[in-house]
């Protein structure tokens, strides 16, 4: 073990009490965090399916976004490699729940253990994957090193590296270079991501595009959107999708200032543990609220509909006339704008887009999206678009064309994975 990785492992061990306390704290608001604790420390029970299938292709998708992005790739792997079992690992309960909804019993799913050498060794001993694919920026030094030492091919796919993250990794140049060079291959989302990874010491980095473009809006979700529209009646609808802390309050203040309009504001917070908090924010602004969980038609006097459900984002997009992409108003880097474009809804996006810089830039350039600077500007632009059906139709068509143009990353990633398997 190198000196840098020794110090890293020591820090991870010393952080154990804080990690346990954080799990307990999160479990207060999201009880699912109380489940499967053993898996987080490398303790697993072998299912009958696992006992029968010893050849695992393992994909690590930390949470909801990564799990959804992997959907097309996992479907291809299931079709092309029925002799293998797919193992899907997560770090969050919402990611795990998304895996259940998308794949049911066709894959195995567990939590990836924290990056303790012993826990990671138990994980690898238990499943013995013949190939590992980790999504986006899940760079765990001990996990990567132990896969390399056991000759388990490990690919970083849909890889992204923002300028902000690159600066942090550059603070430990030798450590980062060694970690990146221990990976078998890297497939980046964009040329900019690839160049940042190369500057940090990665070798050959391929550019395959973004897996998230390959997600086809599910028919069941589109039908759900139609049922939501039945709840709304004929009112124009603005969606605030995957909002983050602080954004809802700013948006509600701006919405309350323009509450004479007939439009309905639909807010879907990014994290389920914040549903109650956002409901309180609506009440504090004196706005009339109904919730998705009530499953009742929206009253004419209702001003805000709270999307307190998970795994239904395409349905929310399909039910809206214009959509704001959360995480972009303040410094969160934006959530995924590709979903809204793929459905054909006009997209509004704030100034913070470092998680999706290329997609945001191209969506703005082709007319699928518009940029806004603040919450007041957001509400003003949304109301303007709600009154202009012709422009909404044009933007929606541009969004669908934009999403269609960039598909194909899943097939390219599959070809890379198969070449490594054939090795």
Fold and architecture overview:
The chain has 423 residues and is an alpha/beta fold. It folds into 2 domains: 23-209 and 408-422, Rossmann fold; 219-405, Glycogen Phosphorylase B (Rossmann fold). It contains 21 helices and 14 strands. The chain has helices spanning 3-14, 16-29, 37-40, 48-52, 64-69, 71-80, 93-103, 117-127, 141-149, 163-170, 173-181, 191-199, 219-232, 247-257, 275-284, 313-318, 338-343, 357-366, 375-386, 389-405, 409-422; strands at 56-60, 85-90, 108-111, 131-135, 154-159, 185-188, 205-207, 237-243, 264-269, 289-291, 304-306, 322-325, 347-349, 369-371. The protein has a 7-stranded parallel β-sheet with strand order 3-2-1-4-5-6-7, sandwiched between helices. A 7-stranded parallel β-sheet has the order 10-11-9-8-12-13-14. Strand 4, helix 9 (141-149) and strand 5 form a beta-alpha-beta unit. The chain is globular, with a radius of gyration of 22 Å. It starts with a helix and ends with a helix.
What is the fold's blueprint, element by element?
Layout: H1 3-14, H2 16-29, H3 37-40, H4 48-52, E1 56-60, H5 64-69, H6 71-80, E2 85-90, H7 93-103, E3 108-111, H8 117-127, E4 131-135, H9 141-149, E5 154-159, H10 163-170, H11 173-181, E6 185-188, H12 191-199, E7 205-207, H13 219-232, E8 237-243, H14 247-257, E9 264-269, H15 275-284, E10 289-291, E11 304-306, H16 313-318, E12 322-325, H17 338-343, E13 347-349, H18 357-366, E14 369-371, H19 375-386, H20 389-405, H21 409-422
Helix pairs in contact: 6-21, 8-9, 14-19
